[in-house]
Design a protein that fits this description.
single chain; mainly alpha; 8 helices; globular
Length: 160
């Protein structure tokens, strides 16, 4: 029952639910559904991160934030999320560049190929995808913890 309440009150409830569904699908050998749910959870995480960053820093007003959030995931990821990470500090930027490159070259396309082309992936690809997303979130969390910047570490406390 405690687990139920920890999810119910989680600041990233929606992303967490997608990650947990992705994990459940993985253990039930439905690797495509695992990839799709992990990608969806990652997208929700990224969008919330960007939204909270702009709200906390007041760099953008509410209308500008909405315009960013409707601009599409790839735009949000490259033009807002990554730039924000690099601007927070130079700490761990090499790790972020490395995992960003791997994610964009190897992982990002998987979900689209499943949904739009009906491609089927194996356990290996699903595990690599899950590991990439989890590693990305871990690096972000480490960076925020080291910087203690703008209360963002309080927005994502469960990953700490």
């Amino acid at each position: 029952m405690n687990n139920f309440y920890s999810i119910k009150n989680h600041p990233l409830k929606q992303a967490t639910l997608f990650f947990r569904k992705g994990e459940r699908f993985f253990f039930n050998y439905d690797f495509n559904s695992s990839i799709v749910n992990n990608q969806t959870g990652f997208e929700v995480f990224i969008v919330l991160f960007v939204k909270k960053y702009y709200e906390i820093t007041k760099i953008k007003n509410e209308t500008q934030i909405i315009n960013v959030l409707v601009s599409g995931f790839k735009n949000i990821f490259k033009d807002h999320f990554l730039k924000t990470l690099y601007n927070i500090s130079s700490d761990q930027n090499e790790e972020i560049e490395e995992i960003e490159k791997y994610y964009l070259e190897e992982c990002y396309k998987l979900r689209n190929e499943i949904v739009h082309a009906g491609k089927v992936y194996s356990e290996k690809e699903a595990k690599q995808f899950k590991d990439c997303v989890c590693d990305f979130i871990y690096i972000i969390n480490q960076k925020l913890n080291k910087e203690k910047m703008m209360n963002l570490q309080n927005v994502f406390p469960i990953f700490q």
